[in-house]
Amino acid sequence: MSELALVYTLFGSADEARTVSRQLVEERLAACANIHAPCTSIYEWDGQVREEGEVPVFFKTTPLQRPALMERLAELHSYDVPAILWWEMAGEQVYAGWVGGQTG
To answer: What's the pTM value of the predicted model, to 2 decimals?
Structure first.
């Protein structure tokens, strides 16, 4: 088993999710981005409870690249306060090696 990092965020549109995901893969900060089906988020913002459609994305990277990925994701994201969450985890060694090669 080898170490991996998974970074999660939500975008306001599928187009933005695709554009940012492609850029982060091209910049070799993420080996892969999984864009999921739209979801509904309910949250309070500016004193009002809101309900909005969002598009969740998981980025796969290495623990070493995770800080740079998160920083760049925050720069590219259209939200004032994007939810950028992460987990470190173990993964199958061959796959983790591929992720490391893609982001090295």
So the answer is: 0.94
